Amino acid sequence: MTTTGFTLKGRHVLAMLLLFFGTVFCVNFYMARAAIQTFSGLEADKPYQDGLKYNEVIAAAREQAERNWKVEATVDPQADGVLLTVTQRDGAGVATPGLAIRATFMHPADRRRDVSVVLAPAGDGRFSISAPVVAGRWDVQIEAQKEGAILFRSVNRIDVAAVK
Prior knowledge:
- By secondary structure, the chain is of the alpha+beta class.
- The chain has helices spanning 10-38, 47-52, 54-67, and strands spanning 70-78, 81-89, 100-106, 115-118, 120-123, 126-131, 136-146, 149-160.
- Strands 1-2-6-5 form a 4-stranded antiparallel β-sheet, with no helix packed on it. Strands 4-3-7-8 form a 4-stranded antiparallel β-sheet.
- 12% of the residues are buried.
């Protein structure tokens, strides 16, 4: 038998254990901190108050269904975002005058990336705007208001393609 000159002692084992568990602790601390900073976990600013208004939301949805509006939206990718075009018609196929249309592009994972825009009227029930939205998956909420009252609201998930 030959000797290498190195003897594993208790202090070496202690140092290896401390380095191992210290590394695990540091990685866990970093990952937890990054997770908390990037996503707060809250979906709504006032979830309790929003829950209390649930019956009002159901009543507004019933009123919207009774109006029998046809609202169509198209999203076309552009170099600096997307072109959003919304067309509104009532049950008789006539555009409702005096509407203001707002759209919010909501990022599914990060509310800080949400983009809200007010569409400009283009005549005959058409509204459009160019919005600075990057390629990816988005939830688009469209609201039509008249005299401060929300008459139409829809939320749809879309995939915005990159411009080639």
